[in-house]
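Run folding on both entries below.
>entry_1
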Amino acid sequence: MVTNSTVLSDIEIAQKTEMKPIIEIAKKIGIEADDLELFGKYKAKLSTDALEKIQTRESGKIILVTSINPTPAGEGKSTVTVGLGDAFNRLGKKAMIAMREPSLGPTMGIKGGATGGGYSQVLPMEDINLHFTGDFHAITTANNALAALIDNHLQQGNELRIDQRRIVWKRSLDLNDRALRKIIIGLGGPLQGMPREDGFDITVASEIMAVLCLAANLKDLKIRLSRMVIAYNEDKMPITVRDLGVEGALALLLKDAIKPNLVQTIEHTPALVHGGPFANIAHGCNSVIATIAAAKLADYVVTEAGFGADLGAEKFLHIKSRSAGIRPEAVVVVATIRALKMHGGVTVNELVAENIQALSKGFANLQKHVETIRSFGLPVVVAINKFITDTEQEVQMILDWCQRENVPVALTEVWQKGGEGGIELAEQLLTVISKEKNKFYPLYDLSDSIESKVRTIVQKVYGGNDVEFSQKAQKQLKDFEKFGWSHLAVCMAKTQYSLSDDPAKLGRPSDFTVTVREFKPSIGAGFIVALTGEVMTMPGLPKKPAALNMDIDENGHAIGLF
């Protein structure tokens, strides 16, 4: 076994890797240099012309990677996604990866970046985890430009009769900053604006992030931006961006951000990394443009959806698949021994120690996620993301459980071995795709009521008994029906740690009721957000944030990113 003293950190592995010029990577998938917009030697955006040229090509197969409910540190979905893409290429398949861009919130908080880990990473790791090509800055700027334009409209006479008590558009920042959740703006007299309550969301929770990730092209982007609801007037009727007349300005700010970013893995597999909505407070998937482009450029596309199958995968299948007209051929559910032991009752500080009893008890959580994916009519494969601290007996227990439950499974060692460690998983997927029929169907119809859609998700995906709607949520349901929004999909905002809305209820809880405290209309994105439990759209930092370990040396090399 490799000892901890000999293990290189993710950033050390990344910095020791010799990357190929991104022009060479692009040629592997038939993209010429003239169709790239270069950001230095190793990053590029696909041009609008390039995206148009490939639209008539036949699409490859999409494989979705999700997981069980994670520990606070995450279970390695990004790592498995990268390693699986590399494994397909090792098997001689033309494969690409489509992933989300990391947010600075978790990067500088507790979870770390989102470029994979070990020898299954997308590169340049430091750039992607920090400012990358500026997409998040553009989204933040567009979000806050809209906020400024709303307040200016109030200051200049309020022609739209906006009720300043019912402005729902918040400002945004791509950092965890709990002090900005609720603020007062406009203090200081008549020249400083209209005093009112406001607040900040983290950028990845901004509706503009969701709109960009679900837009089919620039024209669709502008249409979606125009129908975003920003406030209600004195008659309690919705006011949109179209009413304010600024959708063109917002689209202009996003004209480059909408183009997907091309990078590479450690093994030089092409990867499109684009967009980054969180899955616990947004829809949790990379951009439709990037996923479809990857499917046009490769025979197999490996993409991920945030957190567990109860969040990211459910939203991929109910929101992204519908919006984009795509479906996955199979789904990978990533499981780790440490997370299963957590769901079996072990505290986070004791997950490294072998605990067979807790591991066995934790299988209930894995079983529910497998059942959920199968309820959509999709083939599923469990990937055991092996850590160097896992014991042989623990690994064998999961293999035995999967065999008893007739669940295809693969031991996956991509963190330590790169693509080689994902070959068993890739081969399992190829077998499953060829043998099992894909009967994908959503669990609810868009014609169902919002209340019915929420109840379906709670009962069929979470395993709960029922839903309780607060008085505010009940009133909103009536208003939304009056406004003609009942046909939209539902995006559940819920804790990622539990199948329920209570993060303390681990494993496979039963006999629980989910409480929806309020709804948030994301009409531009095409869904209604249901806020449950105590989930926040602006997270806070932990007691000892990852930023404490970050630095830069005298040669400009990053230190402490993971």
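>entry_2
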Amino acid sequence: MATSTRRERPVRTLVTFAVLVIALFAALIAGNVWGNASLTPKLALDLEGGTQLILRPTAEDGERVTEDTIAQAIDIIRQRIDASGVAEAEITSQGGSNIVVALPGEPDDETLDLVRESAQMLFRPVIVQAAPTPVEDASATVTPPAEGTEPADASDPAWVTQDVLDQFNAYDCTDPENLAGGAELVGDPEAAVVSCDQNGAVKYILGPVEVRGEEIANASSGLRTTQTGAITSEWVTNIEFDGDGTVAFREVTTRLLNLESPRNQFAMVLDGLVISAPSVNSIISDGKAEISGSFTRESAATLAQQLNFGALPLTFEVQSEQQISATLGSEQLQRGLLAGLIGLVLVGVYSLAQYRALGGVTIASLVAAGLLAYGLIAVLSWTQGYRLSLPGVAGIIVAIGITADSFIVYFERIRDELRDGRTLPAAVEHGWDRARRTIIISDAVNFLAAVVLYFLAVGGVRGFAFTLGLTTLIDLAVVMLFTHPVMLLAARTKFFGQGHRFSGLDPVRLGARARYAGRGRVVVAGQAQPADDDLAPVGAVGSDEGPRRATIAERRAAARLAASTPPAGAPPGAGAGPGAEAPSEDPADGAAQDDVRTDGKDA
């Protein structure tokens, strides 16, 4: 006889969920009172409007600005804006000659400066290299020189003064503000600077500038060609310098070749960030350098584009800067929210009609999911700069159906267990074990689809994918931490536990069958149940293993129960007779109608 040893604590789980929700909104309110947080989510361009800048890239030396240069400039601007924490910005090319940047809301002057500034490509020697996070002391790596020491060359550690070392120790390359790029990160070209790898993986102390981007004649990518003319499978980036660049780079590589690591590296710095820092393996005397490493076709091509972009002394001329109104406006937001409210009401009405009082659990769970979604989106708007667009609102509306589907799966599993003759506490336990796997698999598929859509899509579709993925995770949390504990508590009440006809869990209305309770006892649906609820009902599907035939003891017990139960309309004390046989409640349960004798012997 199987018994359940699991002890669940629904009250503790509900308290944990309540603490999480309260902490979320407490943080939001505290940020509103003592910080710059808003109690409502920030809106994207399509719902709020913002600032639009039209930039015209121009080359200082009169060279033609190509579409590839425009595309690279857009990538640089997008990197700056994304690193500054501004979300839902739109950056597009206009007519192949202008760049249109639309920023939602009211961006500050610092963000606007990131858009207006031109990018610079500079070559600096590496002096110190370390992990990206702040450290207490880096003196073990390099010792500051004595006062008055003059550096011998650009790679001399004498450039690392105590001030530079202190800045290097405290610098955090995991901070998005230090990865935004811009003029303030370029630094003095005649002095040492602290810089980050563009991915925030490494931080450097770099020497003065020795080669400038305008001295690059050309950069390209391709498969490596050996001295014998054979083509390998290794992707490389090739750089060709002009006359001045050839002389300068020959002097640099001659000096770096004999230095220890990392001082044998030179850093290519674009927009104040290191895009590559290769080491020198030979003297480059002809101005044609080859950069090799763990490149793919895409990464080698990207580096070549960045070098070409930095080689062009490009500046941005602001053609116009103006406030723009929302493309859709608050009316569309109100309609979207109204559509979501209507959907929520319809789901609630359907739940009440289908599940009666049990539908109230659905409504309460949807309210809990809504509070959690609102709080998370508002906090993300405050801390990450997230902005809610109309496609994002659509993702939230779709999530109502996903969340309701999880509840329906759970409730139907419970009702199936009740039909098999279990008590409500046992039905909740067994139904949860079976429904949980289905809910987790379904939410995992939805979340995976949202992740793929987010990384493959652009524009507003990403907003839809983001909210869809977020609300899918919320659905899983609500079902685990709210809906299931509420059902455990409801099963202990008289209204639900005894199957009131308005509870939605009435065993008689659900067509529950009699079940064998062990020791010759058979319990009819609606009667008090014995302590053990893990046995299968007689002649029905009552366990995870599927249907089975009734045993002889079960059939005899059913016959004795039928014999002791007077037929309808019979006088008091009348029975079915000692030789009567109990009929099956379900014609499909043929096992219950089998004779219990075989040639006068027990089977």
